[in-house]
Amino acid sequence: MARLLVALVVILVAVVQSKEIPDPGDLALVLSENEFEDYLNLWLEHKSEFNQLSTTFSKSESGCTLGVNEDFGQPQPVYINNNTYLTPTGATGKVNLYPGEQVTIACPGPKRFILHPNITASVATAIAVCVNSDLVSGAGWLNGSGAFSGLTCSSHPTHDARATNETCYNNNLVIRVGFTVEGVFYPLYSSCFDERRLEVLYVWYEQNPQNAVHQTGINRPSFAAGTFYPGVPVNDMYKKEQQKATLTNLVGSHLADKYLTTRQYLARGHLAAKTDFIYASGQRASFYFINAAPQWQPFNAGNWNSLEQKLRARIGNAGYNTVVYTGTFGVTQLRDENDRFVDIYLYTDENNNPQIPVPLYFYKVVYDADRHLGTAFVSINNPYYSESEVRALTFCTDRCRNNSAFSWLNWQPDRIDIGYSFCCTIDDFRRIVPHLPPFTVTDLLS
């Protein structure tokens, strides 16, 4: 907590002096998992406010204009428009509706209903109609016109993680995460999950210019296991005392103390980032263990976070319409007391089968189907490998290194302690990681 307070003082001084505040990656080896997430929220909020100050914005006289960070109340409903989630116009962070356009306002889940100062009926789902500016009407449930920002839920909407009859790589289970509104399920992202090893192979979802601006200041819920880790106390496996016990069994007590420090330990690393989703409802739905894997915390806060932030901005600036496949591959290893490499897992079942592997690689494959462009961004999840070891594990020619087309990336690829990183063509990536479905790529997405 003391470290976070110091970081907050730095932010305050920077704001007062109109200076740039430290990038979250600069604090990767300073802040704990929760402290880093709190700082990242504040940093993103500050950046959002700065961008708003530098952007001219006025409410529309004809139709409705709603700012993602100004006009959406909390606890936030789910918004459906034209049979899909409501989205802003391009990378503007502004939702534009024509006069009379309808948006479904929904608060799915038991004992949840819509709230508004002008409410006249207790309903869980209703149709809001654009009047003008930020005003909407609602026949039979809203008295006259009211501010869109006044629409909230009595409690946070309930999201679902649903097993499907579909399969992904190696006949593994496809799980869809989203919201059900009036009997229709609207997916946000999908997970390819190995039920035997309790391993998330990859998650996939759309990432378009509309995702460039997301809501900030959203509180983080606890991670949920859903029905996919039966009998396994998965959250407990991430507790530091349990990590110590797990590593002690694998490598011995002395080395466990060496590997697990106040700076280096395993965090619940998001695959689809919370802030890859525009609205609070979607961000909260990202907190499933089927969207996470064990990740060394400075890597989580370092090159992985940098990739998340820079890639989202690049997609918005370039106008790409992409599918992101983000996943894990292999099992990381640590040396034991006999100087032998040992595979690291967080859990072992009653039959002594290892489960919840600590991945060797984390990756994001970004694909624009219209342009047939794609790039694989890969990082090594182990701060204890030597330089020669990470170079031996680099399985392709790094296409981002010394390439001006990737100047936007701005990560620190040679930093082993925050995630040694490199980029591959899709073909080179597929030769080692066989997870992806087939698609055609003619060049790098840069």
UniProtKB/TrEMBL annotation:
Transmembrane segments: none annotated. One of its GO terms (cellular component) is mitochondrial inner membrane. Pfam families: Endonuclease_NS. Residues 1-18 form the signal peptide. Keywords: Endonuclease, Hydrolase, Metal-binding, Nuclease, Signal. The keyword Nucleus does not apply. GO terms for molecular function: metal ion binding; nucleic acid binding; RNA endonuclease activity; single-stranded DNA endodeoxyribonuclease activity. Mg(2+) binds at N300. One of its GO terms (biological process) is apoptotic DNA fragmentation. The active site is at H270 (proton acceptor). Belongs to the DNA/RNA non-specific endonuclease family. This is SFRICE_007635.
